[in-house]
Amino acid sequence: MGEPKIRPASVADCERLTEIYNHYVKHTPITFDIEEWTPERRRGWIEQHAETGRHQLLVAETDGVVAGYASTGPWRAKQAYEPSVEMSVYLAPESTGMGLGSALYRELFARLAREDVHRALAGITMPNTASIALHECFGFTKVAHFTENGRKHGRFWDVVWMEKCTFP
């Protein structure tokens, strides 16, 4: 595997981002989406992100193939919450454990340092030791543990919320 190239996502990445995300929809509780996304729906989501600002979407390419992505989006809809963003990172199953999540977050936090962002939050379906470890490495701390918060694949799942004060 070559050195990953981290770059802003574009609509040209739509099919691959949809494929990566739908793996987690179908096979894991990591996302609480139950139905797979279509590329058309995913395209609208991609278009909501910009190369600057609070809400960004970056992809990691290895050997010319998108291997994962990280994004920030609104945490809550009310205007007073605007300086808080929700973080997400998804990697192709064959690309986990290679440091791509860390590479994506390093670049995303470097970009957010130039923006009006005060808090970054992450909701993590439990158990997920890899995601907890990734977030802890970037200074996130656990602030809440909701029990049996969502139902997927015939059972209830807990969700841990972590936050990071990104900038004073």
Q: Report the CATH architecture.
A: 3-Layer(aba) Sandwich
Number of strands: 7
Let me know the average pLDDT: 95
Instruction: List the total number of helices.
Output: 4
CATH superfamily: Gcn5-related N-acetyltransferase (GNAT)
Indicate the percent of residues in helices. 25-40%
Strand fraction? 25-35%
CATH fold annotation: Aminopeptidase
Quaternary form = single chain
Largest beta sheet: what is the strand line-up?
1-2-3-4-5-7-6
| Backbone shape | globular
Number of domains: 1
The radius of gyration computed from the alpha-carbon positions, rounded to a whole number of angstroms, is 15 Å
| Unreliable spans | none
Instruction: Report the major sheet.
Output: 7 strands, mixed
Structural class: alpha+beta
Give the CATH class: Alpha Beta
- Calculate the terminal CA-CA distance, rounded to whole Å: 37 Å
Order of helices and strands: EHHEEEHEHEE
